Amino acid sequence: MTATSSAGATPIMDRLISRTVQEHRPLSVHFDLTYRCNERCVHCYLDHDDHGELTTAECLKVLDDLARSGTLFLTFSGGEIFLRPDLYEILAAARRLHFDISLKTNALLVTPERAVRLRELGVRRVQISVYSDIPAVHDAITKVPGSLQRTLAAIPILLEQGLQVKLACPLMRENLLAYRGVMALAEKLGVPYILDLTITPMMDGSGGPLEHRASVSSLLPVLRDPVLHACKPQPTPQAASAMNAFQPAFGSAVSSGIESSAYEDLPCSAGHNSCYISPYGDVFPCVQLPQAAGNLRTEKFDDIWYHAPKLERLRAIRESQLPICSRCEIRSYCERCPGLALMEGGDILGAYERACLLAEEEARLAGVVAPVSALHREQETGFVQNALKTEFASLAANSSSD
Amino acid sequence: MSTAAPVLWQKNPALAWREIDDETVIISPQDSVMHELNNTGSFLWKNIDGDKSAAELAELLAANYEVTPDIALSDTQALLEEMSSRKLVVTVPATGGVTT
Questions:
Q1: Fewest CB atoms within 10 Å of the CB: A45, A170, A273, B47?
Q2: Touching check for A252 and chain B: CB below 8 Å?
Q3: Is some CB atom of chain B closer than 8 A to the CB atom of A43?
Q4: Which candidate from B32, B37, B67 shows the least CB-CB separation from A5?
Q5: Contact residues on chain A for B25, CB-CB shorter than 8 A
Q6: Distance from CA of B72 to the nearest CA of A (A)
Q7: Is residue B14 included in any domain, yes or no?
Q8: Cis omega (within 30 of 0) for bond into A156
């Protein structure tokens, strides 16, 4: 018997994902500490009023439960997390419980002193929302004059503490052409970025933010931009070099795991090895799938995670069994989201227009000739059948009148 | 006669880690590198608490796994060295020496 490190044929992250998906372990949790915010982004899907956030003690209890359940990756987000006066207390507890800690913030409240505390508390990565490199564009989205300047000022402060910074840029009508500027900004700062084409309805299902969503036709120049790898996370320079240094003997860089083969026939990781917790203690499969499976004020996390009927039903879904999408010839180009399928199409198992249009465009870009999604093919067939029925009915009526 | 105090081992407090099914995944936040320990590595990891020397860890290993004391010690030392080179563990001096 030896005591050595193990390194399987697959990278560690892949093995970890496979294992946790198979056993439904909550490997990755997104925990919103507040919905309050010091920006008022036009596309935001949150109600910023405080409807009774978890107390500090309740948050710490949640962290204890998550650690016991095997959660490793913990992302604190909001709202704006720095508006929680107990943020450092919560981070300190998370550090004691050995989570891998990431934050999402607009960084308006970052100061050198706060950055030092984040580093001391073991935060690994900070994701910052940047909508444009042009102040007028960014500030018009956040509705806070001077916000871009303040956000950008925070980035070197965080980097100076050795924290990894990543820019996140949701693309919408207001900033659609700003992505090149954000890419250049990220390059200049030496940080990775992610462009996100997803704008979601409000969590109560109302569609206000969707008014800001860019139409698929207006996205074409973005999708066709050869220098752009939209929505594809890039490894940080540090992570990439570390991966080279340690593979394959012992370690590998932390990756997003998004492309893992463990998710092959699953719609996504939601409810399988990841979930979302709201500031009020509701447990959702994902922030984009706001169907509460239970509440941590009245139930233990494990009881919700392993036994909630909503999660059990979600776990039973397989892409190969979806009524429409399983027949789709361009499925491999599709980034269908079950949450958006529910919120936009009314059916978690269904197809929805936006995903189909984007998939058709992606397929076209990849060289597929005249790609048509299963939904659109069905609609066309239905249209033709209806037209034929009408014609037959008309012919029948004419012949009987003759 | 007095000898130098034994070197005690403790986990690098900056690390994120979780034991999942008798295996342990460790992440170094500074460089985002992931590491994985197998069952016996995880056993030692759990017992690395700043209070034990390599010899004491090896004793625990030998007592809990079918392995001779010699092999337990050499395996333990090898793993500690490997983990030390990757900054997963650090040494702490014991308070006071050992008198023989």
A1: B47
A2: yes
A3: no
A4: B37
A5: 12, 16, 72
A6: 7
A7: no
A8: no
A238 touching B (Cβ < 8 Å): yes
Please check whether residue B10 lies inside any domain of the structure.
no
Task: State the complex-level ipTM.
Answer: 0.89
Going by DSSP bridges, is the β-strand pair A251-253/A193-196 parallel, antiparallel, or unpaired? unpaired
Could you tell me if residue B6 is inside a domain? no
When scoring A12, A17, A238 by the number of chain B Cβ atoms within 10 A, the one with the most, hence best to mutate, is: A12
B contact set with A (CB within 8 A)? 14-18, 20-21, 23, 25, 27-38, 40-41, 43-44, 61, 65-67, 71-72, 75-76, 78-79, 82, 86
CATH of the domain at B75: 1.10.10.1150
- Which of A1, A250, A254 is closest, CB to CB, to B65? A1
> Which domain covers residue B64, as residue numbers?
23-92
Alpha-carbon gap: B55 to the closest alpha carbon of chain A (Å): 14
Do A3 and B25 make contact, defined as CB atoms within 8 angstroms? no
- Tens-digit pLDDT string for chain A (402 aa): 232 333 333 488 888 999 999 999 999 999 999 999 999 999 999 999 999 999 999 999 999 999 999 999 999 999 999 999 999 999 999 999 999 999 999 999 999 999 999 999 999 999 999 999 999 999 999 999 999 999 999 999 999 999 999 999 999 999 998 999 999 999 999 999 999 888 988 888 788 899 999 999 998 888 888 877 544 444 333 333 222 222 222 334 444 445 577 788 898 999 999 999 999 999 999 999 989 999 999 999 999 999 999 999 999 999 999 999 999 999 999 999 999 999 888 999 999 999 999 999 999 989 999 999 999 999 988 766 666 666 666 666 666 555
Per the structure, the count of domains in chain B is 1
A108-157 tens-digit pLDDT: 999 999 999 999 999 999 999 999 999 999 999 999 999 999 999 999 99
Using a CB-CB cut-off of 8 Å, the residues of chain B touching A123 are 29
B18 within domain boundaries: no
Q: Where are the alpha helices (DSSP H) in A101-248?
A: 112-120, 135-142, 147-160, 179-189, 216-223, 237-246
| Residues in chain B within 8 Å Cβ distance of A99 | 16
How far CA A91 is from CA of A81, A94, A263, in Å, comes to: 11, 5, 30
Q: CA B14 to CA B51: how far, in whole Å?
A: 18
The DSSP-derived string for B47-77 is H-SSSEEHHHHHHHHHHHSS--HHHHHHHHH
What are the residues facing A104 on neighbouring strands? A127
Q: Pairing relation of β-strands B16-20 and A193-196?
A: unpaired
Round to whole Å and give the CA distance between B65 and A296: 40
> Do strands B2-3 and B33-37 pair parallel, antiparallel, or not at all (unpaired)?
unpaired
Cβ burial, residue B8 (10 Å; 0-12/13-18/19+): buried
